[in-house]
Specification:
The protein is an alpha+beta fold. Helix content is about 45%, strand content about 15%. It has a four-stranded mixed β-sheet with strand order 4-8-9-7. A three-stranded antiparallel β-sheet has the order 1-3-2.
């Protein structure tokens, strides 16, 4: 990389880092790659859903330039006196696999990607809460399809609900969620209690053609968690 291009990349990295830090009070490698235009947010979402085997596959640059951008990012963060926080990245799938960043899978490279750089202006407790939130496993999303003629890419079956996977839609039985009970939206307290008591849960959404977006319809929770939540509220009434 020429000196001129290196200086230009350094400026782009710094702008992306400053913007992310101002918005979230921490910065990640993903923020940098998205901010400088090498990584599409949609590609990140596919990776989080387990549909991309490693993140670098969808970064629109070669490995040497990616390494240089991340080196510049670490130098900027160190100069700013930011704190480091290691973050777990877990797939938005029922199996909750650990997500992979690099083609090589080398430990030091993976650790660099997982490191979040946190503002020193935050108190220790706030940094801990931020780290806990960032490492939280993402919500599983189940879709209520508009077209009932869809077919599961695994078994060829169908149903009222599906989960999107890389090859196509999967029925809840194949996704391992068919034992969960559907709790319609509307009772916020019951939903919170059922979710808190359920080791496995997923939000159910349906696409609204009029609004052009997916809207929440309810939640899938473990039947026993739902029964316990209903009982606890019955005792209070």
């Amino acid at each position: 990389m020429s000196r001129k291009n290196k200086a230009r990349l350094s400026e782009r990295v710094e702008r992306a880092a400053e913007a992310a830090l101002a918005a979230k009070r921490f910065v990640s490698a993903i923020d940098i790659l998205v901010g400088i235009g090498w990584l599409d947010a949609g590609a990140v979402e596919r990776w989080r859903r387990g549909q991309v085997d490693y993140l670098e596959r969808v970064v629109q640059s070669n490995l040497s330039r990616i390494s240089e951008a991340l080196r510049l990012f670490r130098a900027w963060a160190t100069a700013k006196g930011l704190f480091t926080s290691t973050t777990d990245y877990v797939a938005r799938t029922p199996r909750r696999e650990t997500l992979r960043f690099s083609r090589s899978g080398e430990g030091a490279i993976e650790a660099a990607y997982r490191t979040h750089w946190v503002s020193p202006e935050l108190s220790e407790k706030k940094r801990e809460r931020l780290a806990e939130k960032a490492s939280r496993a993402p919500e599983l999303v189940v879709v209520q399809p508009l077209n009932r003629e869809w077919k599961c890419h695994r078994c060829g079956g169908s149903g009222d609900l599906l989960m999107m996977e890389d090859p196509g839609p999967a029925c809840l039985r194949c996704a391992g969620l068919d034992d969960l009970a559907f709790l319609p939206a509307g009772d916020a307290l019951l939903t919170r209690r059922a979710k808190a008591g359920s080791a496995r849960h997923a939000v159910v959404v349906r696409f609204s053609r009029s609004r052009g977006r997916y809207e929440r319809q309810g939640r899938l929770v473990e039947p026993q968690a739902l029964a316990d939540a209903e009982k606890s509220l019955d005792r209070r009434s």
